[in-house]
Amino acid sequence: MRQKLHLMSFLNISKVAVGCASFDALKRRQEGRLQAGIVPIVTRFRPKRADELVGGSIYWIIKHRLAARQAILGFAEGEDRRTVIQLDPKLVPVKARAKRAHQGWRYLDIADAPQDFDGDDEGLAELPPGLVVKLSALALI
Which terminus of the chain, N or C, has less C-beta within 10 A? Predict the structure, then answer.
């Protein structure tokens, strides 16, 4: 119980997976970015609430739906004083939820974040992630 309460204190962000038409396309992109066990994402400005984001996740928007997430491991300073968001390489499919596209990133409270597909009672975690995303986009699951 204590661990669950601790996890609820994390803040998340959402970001459009620009140029990715599917979960598989995002997965290939993130695998190509992998460096020393992390996936770096460069952004212009460091989030003001960066400390609350470490341990939370970035939720990826694909085709106007929150479709996947990656855990935020930390932040670093990159070239030209840009911020590098350091992500866990594991891309986790989530139960898709409609989300309007936006520029940059937006904060996402834990209450507004969709659930992961692991450990569900419906057996959806056994399906390939790409199929889950497609079925969810069609509102079949």
Answer: N
